[in-house]
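Hi R.,

Here are the chain sequences for the assembly we discussed:
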Amino acid sequence: MGIPVQMRLELVRGARRIMAPTLLLALVMALGTQLSHQPPGGLELPAARAREDIWSLGLLLLLPLACLHYAQGARAREHTFLTSFPSGRSKERGAAGFATLLICLTTLAGIGALAESSIPNESALRHTRSVDLGAPRRIVPGEELALVLDPGKRSSDARISLEVASGGGAGPTTTVRLELIGQEHTQIEHLIDGRGRVELSIPMGSETVQVVLVCLGPGDAVVPGGRCLTLLEKVPSVRRASLEIGARAAGVLALVLLVVALVRGFLKPGMATTLALGLTLLGASSHVLPVEQLLEALRLAAEGRLPAAPQWREFSALWIFLGLLGWSAFDLQSRRQK
Amino acid sequence: MRAMPEDTPLALLAQDLTRSYRPGLLQKVRPALAGLDLAVPAGTTVALAGPNGSGKSTLLRLLAGVEKPNSGTLRVLDGAAHEARVQRRVSWLPSESPFPPDLSAFGALELIANLFGDKGWQQRAQELLSRAGLEPHATVPLRTFSRGMLRRLGMIGAFLTEPKLVLLDEPTAGLDAQGFDLFDGLLAEAHRGGTTVIIATHLVEDASNRADLMGILLKGRICLWGTPKDLLQEGQGTDLTIQNLDAAQLGSLKDWITGQGGQWTEGAGGNNSLQGLYERAASQEHRAAGNQA
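And here is the predicted structure of the full complex:
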């Protein structure tokens, strides 16, 4: 049995309205990256930024186009015609939803391939977990701050990354030294201008580690508190960044399509799109929604890092959306059997 | 045309049906149907005629289950119009081509068959495409089709799955002679198969030559109802051309004619046209409103 004509139609439309413009933009960005390729040495950061740029611009185009496409299907003259058929509304919703999702997933794979095409694959560090350091603390030059940290179980390549800010005092910048107590030659000095991160290798295992942060001046150093300490672990391939951004983007996409699915019956396409994107942005700070994780993944991609691996709950919108589409299919199947 | 026995079951029954729309957010609600009553025996072909905005298309949309009435009773094939078991036996052709322009003619028929859950549609689709003269264009995107070709496609699509009730909104608009032949052939088959056909039209030929029953809609109500022959003959009279009389003399003449039980119609060239029927329906409506007042 072939693909139903409705799905074929929606796939062709989706390819034209969503995939073509988005991949064209990503292709232009990827070509631009290749043309501005510099000789080896210090390439890591520009390459990582190119990955982030291609993903960011690709998603900025893909999200509204996908919303608009899915919302438009419901308002066309043909939709009214489809509703004159038994369970025509369910069939239309199911076919349009599945096709839009499929086209978007293919487009995400295309963006990922283009983002990785001109960038060397290397090992990378993953932000596996954050440690809460409580209230902010200020250190004046010459003073030190001893910290007992519990970064949890880690491998031999693990590092800690401590966020430090220069906090005024005798100068706008400051130099800090981070030392691992009990381990000789395990220390690092770093100039902080505004806000920065100091990273230090730590031994493998699961026991707590003791570190000392020394402020060398001229300005004061401030440990901002909260989850400002991160455990980093090595992963063999930085290409996972694109894979995980793509997965998270699929979660966000499902969220906006879910909102559109709920309002497309009575709102015009532009309104439905604006509402869906607006609600998604408003919910960016929610831990349940995958928006914050996606933004974090994009930010870290620019630094050649990976965020913590995606969790199942980040894809709750995707499961709900697939459930809605599945329900449409079940609904029409059960009616057909009557 | 066939005489209908009195005990023929009804294909549809509408009682005091109302439907209104709000054209814009800040605009007043406009009634499209205002207390419409209609009873159509199964197996008949009915023509619904009326000027633009009289409620013909709205009525067909309600019958197709695309919209719901604001109030009143509507039974279609012994069920509610929007029920799946009813919609499975009803076919609706809107006034504008409803098919996605990216589809081919064959794809459009496949779409209809899929939506009806009809498995063995290919052979009948081929046959209908051939009858409609669309076989050479069966795989061409519909965006290249003329209006007449789209109408022919819509028509064969409406009869593809052999429904029990067919709703056709302006089916003959843009049709050529071949299209009319196709239309007549499909209607004849529908008659033989006991299918009820409702045609919303502006063309008197559609009504007088093809329909068993005819209704004239004005302002969302059926004002005249009967066989086309009766309706078109009932109001026939003698056209007089009167010249060189002033308004007072014309008034006296009008009073005398109406006093004798005649009907005075100014400006129209007789009642054997839809325009004449509209005017007669309007005057009856006006008289009924006057009597009520």
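Residues 44-75 of chain A form the longest helix (32 residues). Strands of chain A lie at 124-131, 137-139, 144-149, 159-180, 187-193, 195-201, 209-223, 229-235, 305-306.

Let me know if anything looks off.

Best,
T.
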